[in-house]
Amino acid sequence: MVSSSIASSGALGQPSDGQSEAIPAAHSGPYPWIISPIFDFIFVFGGGAIALLVLNYVYLGWRVPDGVMTSPAAWWLMTVGFLSQHIFADSHNSATYLRIWGSDEDRARFKFHRTWLAYSTIPMFIMGLTIPGLVGAFVYIYLITVYWHYVAQAFGIALIYCYKRGYMLNNAEKEIFRWFLFSIVGYTTIRFLTYREFSPRSWFGVDIPFWGPLPEVFFFIARFACVGMTIAFVVLLARKYFKENKMMPWPSLMVVATVAGLGLSQDAANSMFWFYVPGFFHGSQYLAVCMAYYIKERGMPQGMDTWNITKSALGSPGMKYLGLVILSGCFFYVGIPHFFMQIGQPYSLVAGLVLACVNYHHFVTDAAIWRLRDPRCRKILLA
Prior knowledge:
Largest sheet: 2 strands, antiparallel
Oligomer: single chain
Shape: globular
Number of strands: 2
Strand order of the largest sheet: 1-2
Structural class: mainly alpha
Strand content: under 5%
Number of domains: 1
Radius of gyration: 21 Å
Distance between the termini: 18 Å
């Protein structure tokens, strides 16, 4: 049953300043999911992406579905992949804007991100339209930094599941976990800048430069560091298990496995990961967390059981929220390129420019708004 405070606030109601009356909890301790077990498995910690990867391999082998393939499986997988880009990947950027505009407190705290940082994308957009080759450079910077962004979010999601399930990490253990993941980022980024075959030559018709190659010794150092941090992380997990009888929560492990596979896979397997993971992992994961945060902020009572939490998320407030961010995402990634195409600008050029501008703002803003050490953010996320 949706709480009266949510129902009365509407989809865009103001956050509740008071404490909602608690409903007797069906379980002790923090609620272990973001939304619910099935929802989280499909949309948050990688189950949906992994299922699509398995289906892709079973029906198509190591090939990304495209318009040339005529089998029904290829058509369905291609449709699901592209729809997930628009429904989840494109729209998750818009969820950031709702977050920084969502309450009086957030509007005040993130004024710089709402104003000057947002305004800085305007000259960036104009320069991209007028200076030849600049869009390719912007997209190249996006491609260099996007995996770092994915890993940073995955690290936060994995920690949330750890906290929710009582798998507490001290500062040293947390840093080992962090640097294990970011050693993969360093490895993949330096590989991207060292070997031309790991750097795309074009992005949907936009020519991409190559700012390399770096001396190969940097790649060997990065690989050594990645192997070393992987060993340190495995030792950490083993120590926690044998000394404290605690296993890292399986949702956290699935998050780690999915984001590591995205970075470490190669050739056709890497293309398959990048076809499904942006939508059915990174984007859907972000939307799930934002939607849960949005509903909790507006007065969802503590102690609701899984069924009622799912009804709250998938009921009117949650669906109106999701509809708004999807429409906003379509405006940015479909509407703006189509508008400029009507006045003579190439669609792919403007689409690449929108991608770069929106994600520049998104990356910087995300680093500020989702901090587990922020008491208010932590309280809402872990409730």
